[in-house]
Design goal:
This protein is of the alpha/beta class. The protein has three domains: 6-189 and 579-623, FAD/NAD(P)-binding domain; 195-284 and 473-523, FAD/NAD(P)-binding domain; 304-345 and 391-469, no CATH class. The chain contains 17 helices and 21 strands. The strands form six sheets. The protein has a six-stranded mixed beta sheet with strand order 3-2-1-7-21-20, with helices on both faces. A hairpin with a 4-residue loop joins strand 18 (549-553) and strand 19. The two termini are 20 Å apart.
């Protein structure tokens, strides 16, 4: 027998780390050797980790419906490892309600009430998601095969040392864990302030101003914002929406319905006045609640054949020049296919006829608008990508009240488009952009141009995708509208810039006369990537000692991704370019295409494919571990 088991230490214990353990153990057979000892190290409970931990405001929610959340593989997954299905979040809740999961006990009355009322189209709280993820962790450990031990150590990894036998993982509490294999699965991390943020922090401190830098909303100190203060909020994505929730309803205000069904906000008097602005000047598009009722979405432009043609060409592939035009045309096809086949009464010709016209105009916005105006009477049924991306266009506004009314009207229109079945084109658009996202994963990382890898994919494309497909629940936008009507929220307009002048923050839009002068600024977005500048010491060390950040360069661009260089199987690339055989990294801080953690069921989701692939490589590394064997007694 082996004297000891192979030792795997996973730095992190959030959803992606536990999903990796599940995929690894799914490959184990009863006869597998050597035995395996897995230790996950995280200061936060396993499953939920930091982001989804139970100890946060009950007002903070997922921006996914309960039916669209799973951590399990299913029959749609094109993976090498075995499929082990399990319940989505709503299926899990239904089983808990039915009493078929006796290992789930909810002792929090608010969570129990939420679980009883949960529907497939509900947006669960992060706290309820933490219970689901905790169950997933306990289930994964409970069904571990013989010869496998899995445990969680509450703590924080400081660094990892090489040893003769493998590694020694140093924890902040002084404990040293020996390891044959180490996997970094840290999820999203904060980072040291970048140059602009550092300058703002210093200038604000010198002027005695209040500045809240980019951070995870659940961790931000919003107590520094005083009741009645005028607060500039830069950013109108998910982080900004969460901040608004905590500063309004979180301070005792409440929402109520009027007799005619309109949502009204009743202030507590403890709210600051929030002045929201961003590049677009409007919030992220809300989540969609309609269903496709026409022909199912399919790739017409960004097809496998189109991808193959791009890959067959010599040289690199540029996102903006080569791929974005295909994505934009694909979105046009997705919208109009649903409009013409799902709502033929709202157009004046047939889909068969219009799909002959579409290839002639889908790449030219002006021509597309002319062709559509001739056959689509309702302006709300018309679609093109520039209007989707920049809904305020190049409009100029008379004054602050004018832009406020315009953004308020945009929110009302967006809610109608995204939440009514008659506008099911929004669901088709969502599914089409999701298909496009998955299609980009078919392009090997090394084929992208340097600028595409450093800027266009992680920033331009990711931001656009999030704006269209990963916005807040619709009821959050309705609440922002009610807050605007109550005077708690004001809209600053597009292309907002903030500077410090005469000891005050000054916000302005080039298309809105006047300025807002105040003493308080919140930058409401998540910290950017930057492994070497991470607030996590283990990730900093990985970036500067065992591995390296990806540097990209070609004839037109040179820069750093701020992400750990890994190969296709998650192995860390060393500073000399060699690949570590027993050091892995998995998550948004790596050079792999960003995919999130949990995902939609039955979608052959990229996170599950990525995690399974890395688990296969880790399983091979485990099988290759040579452990000492017990000496046998001499025969007599």
């Amino acid at each position: 027998m082996s004297d000891r088991a192979a030792r795997l230490v996973i730095v992190g214990a959030g959803p992606r780390a536990v999903m990796l353990v599940e995929r690894l153990l799914a490959r184990r057979t009863k006869a597998a050797t050597p035995a395996l000892h897995v230790t996950l190290v995280d200061p936060h409970p396993p499953g939920a980790g930091r982001i989804w931990r139970r100890e946060q405001s009950p007002l903070l929610k997922l921006n996914s419906m309960a039916r669209d959340v799973t951590v399990f593989t299913d029959e749609s997954c094109t993976i090498a490892g075995p499929v082990r299905s399990g319940p989505s979040l709503i299926e899990w809740a239904e089983r808990v309600r039915a009493g078929s999961l006796p290992d789930v006990e909810i002792d929090d009355p608010d969570l129990a009430t939420e679980l009883q009322a949960l529907r497939g189209d509900s947006f669960p709280t992060r706290r309820l998601q933490s219970v689901y993820l905790d169950w997933f962790w306990r289930r994964t450990v409970a069904i571990a095969p013989p010869g496998v031990e899995v445990r969680w150590h509450r703590g924080a990894v400081q660094w990892v040392d090489d040893t003769v036998d493998g590694y020694e993982v140093a924890l902040a509490d002084g404990i040293r864990l020996p390891a044959d294999i180490v996997v970094y699965a840290l999820g999203h991390n904060g980072r040291e302030p970048d140059g602009q943020t550092r300058d703002l922090l210093a200038a604000a401190a010198d002027a005695g101003l209040t500045y809240v830098p980019p951070s995870f909303t659940a961790d931000a100190d919003l107590s520094v914002l005083r009741p009645g203060d005028d607060v500039i909020v830069r950013g109108m994505g998910l982080a900004a929406v969460d901040a608004v929730v905590l500063l309004a309803e979180g301070r005792g205000g409440r929402f109520a319905r009027t007799a005619d069904g309109r949502l009204r906000y009743e202030p507590s008097g403890r709210e600051p006045r929030l002045h929201l602005g961003s590049r677009r000047g409007v919030p992220y598009r809300s989540k969609v609640s309609s269903q496709v009722q026409g022909e199912p979405p399919t790739r017409e432009v960004l097809t496998p054949a189109a991808i193959a043609d791009l890959l067959a060409r010599p040289g690199t592939i540029d996102f903006l020049d080569d791929v974005w035009p295909l994505v934009a045309r694909e979105l046009v096809w997705g919208h109009y296919r649903e409009l013409f086949t799902g709502h033929p009464e709202r157009v004046t010709t047939t889909w068969a006829a219009f799909r002959v016209t579409l290839p002639e105009v889908d790449g030219n916005t002006a021509a597309l608008r002319r062709a559509v105006a001739a056959v689509v009477p309702d302006p709300l049924d018309r679609f093109d990508v520039p209007a989707l991306d920049v809904p305020l266009g190049d409009e100029a506004f008379v004054d602050a009240a004018d832009v406020h009314r315009r953004v308020r009207r945009h929110i009302a229109d967006d809610l109608q488009l995204r939440t009514t079945q008659e506008r099911s084109t929004a669901q088709a658009l969502f599914l089409t952009i999701l298909l496009s996202f998955l299609a980009l994963a078919d392009i090997p990382t090394e084929r992208w141009s340097a600028r595409s890898r450093a800027v266009d994919l992680p920033v331009t494309w990711h931001t656009f995708f999030s704006y269209v497909a990963s916005g807040p629940p619709a009821h959050r936008l309705e609440e922002i509208g009610a807050l605007a009507d109550a005077g708690v929220v004001r809209f600053l307009g597009p292309e907002v810039a903030v500077r410090i002048a005469d000891g005050r923050f000054v916000a302005s839009s080039p298309r809105v006369p006047g300025e807002l002068v105040t003493t308080t600024l919140v930058d409401a977005w998540l910290p950017g990537s930057g492994a070497a500048a991470s607030e996590n010491p283990a990730l900093r060390e990985l970036a500067t000692r065992h591995g390296r950040e990806v540097q990209v360069s070609d004839a037109t661009f040179t820069g750093s991704l701020g992400r750990i260089d890994v190969d296709a199987d998650g192995r860390v690339v060393a500073r000399d370019g060699s690949v570590h055989a027993t050091l892995f990294a998995l998550g948004p801080f790596t050079s792999a295409m960003e995919a999130g953690a949990f995902t939609r069921p039955h979608s052959n989701a990229l996170p599950l494919r990525q995690t399974d692939r890395v688990a296969g490589a880790v399983a091979d590394a485990v099988a290759s571990v040579r452990v000492p064997r017990r000496a046998t007694a001499p025969s007599r």
